[in-house]
Design brief:
The chain is α+β, with helices and mostly antiparallel strands. It has one domain. The chain contains five helices and seven strands; from the N terminus they run H-E-E-H-E-H-E-E-E-H-H-E. Strand 5 and strand 6 form a beta hairpin.
Length: about 210
């Protein structure tokens, strides 16, 4: 993680919508420079933003998400962002059809012939009314030789709306943990990471490496 994503200075609803856009622009610059983008999670708390990057194989994703949830608890997270490269499969909904959801889930996007390579930027934040999400996505365009030539933003972007879906939404706890819960999470994090065999690269976005 050689470059830092830009961070919102305040934490209102409109600021989280800006954060999602900034994260998307960061993802585009990163993948153009490096040719790939490892998933980056950004834990936002009242006094800092902490970026966490890790190369995790599909079999270890569930363990990694468990570790991320513990990190959110330990750092008093009020929001969690994710910037990632992914496969997307769009299944047109036929009017009156009840099987469109089944068709959408009968095959993993990475295994579908009509898959699209995309960048996803999502932030889930919590306020007095609960949890909310903002999401942006863009298709990665490549030439015949596999070189990235540009990006195509999807026309319908879920920016600043309530959305109880998505990976980030489920990782961010519904409420802040009590002091004893945060302390327990901080103490168990090193043991949890070692037990799961996961290495993390962390960077304090307000300063340097964490």
């Amino acid at each position: 993680m050689t470059r830092k994503p830009k961070q919102a200075k305040t934490k209102g609803k409109s600021d989280w919508a800006k954060q999602v856009q900034w994260d998307m622009e960061y993802a585009k610059r990163q993948i153009l420079a490096d040719g790939s983008l490892d998933p980056i999670f950004i834990i936002h708390s009242a006094d800092k933003s902490l970026a966490v990057a890790s190369r995790v194989d599909p079999e270890s994703k569930r363990d990694f998400y468990t570790l991320m949830r513990a990190l959110c608890i330990a750092n008093d997270a009020t929001a969690l962002s994710c910037i990632a490269e992914a496969w997307l499969r769009e299944v047109p909904q036929v009017p009156g059809e009840e099987q469109s959801m089944a068709r959408a889930t009968d095959l993993l996007p990475s295994e579908a012939e009509d898959r699209k390579e995309v960048l996803i930027s999502q932030t889930t934040y919590r306020d007095d009314a609960g949890r909310h999400s903002a999401v942006r996505s863009a298709e990665i365009e490549r030439d015949w030789n596999g070189k990235i030539t540009g990006f195509k933003d999807f026309p319908h972007q879920n920016v600043g709306i309530d959305e109880d879906e998505g990976l980030v939404f489920n990782i961010l706890p519904e409420r802040l943990a009590p002091p004893e819960g945060r302390e327990l999470a901080r103490k168990t994090l090193p043991m949890l990471a070692a037990a799961l065999g996961l290495g993390l690269e962390m960077m304090d976005l307000e300063g340097g490496s964490a």
